[in-house]
Design a protein that fits this description.
Elements (H helix, E strand, L loop, with lengths): L1 E2 L10 H6 L4 H8 L9 E2 L27 E4 L3 H17 L2 H21 L4 H11 L7 H7 L2
Parallel strand pairs: 1-3
Antiparallel strand pairs: 2-3
Helix pairs in contact: 3-4, 3-5
Length: 147
Amino acid sequence: MLVDAATEPRLEEPEVAESLGLSSAQAQAIGTGDLDMGLTHCRDPYDSPHRSDGKVCHVAPAMCMLCRNAVIFTSQLPRLLMLSDHIERMRAALPPPQWQAVWGRQAAALNEVFAECADLLPAARQQVVDLGLRLDLPLGQRTEFDR
């Protein structure tokens, strides 16, 4: 779910949360950063489609772009652009079948998000440069996926 910049500060208003399919508690937790998973926010990290034991999701942020629980703010576009850049670097480093198996679906999901807000991408890209942002991926994700 992509949340635009105008809606983001109003997230905790009950009618806004409800229109996004969020409970008031979820909206409040997202608003305070309690559900920030590194690249996106998560509606419920204890209800991951990647686990069935009720424990916190163990695949964030690697699989967040493919998760039904992901809540993406347009303010997170710089992070997502950096992830996209990382995925493209991996395209050059990995054999095509391996890249497709590991990163292909995430790349497609990112492209869908970027298509929805293409007009915001140049400013987000500039923010990465101006602020000297860097992508912080867990070491386990780098060693597991990038070789």
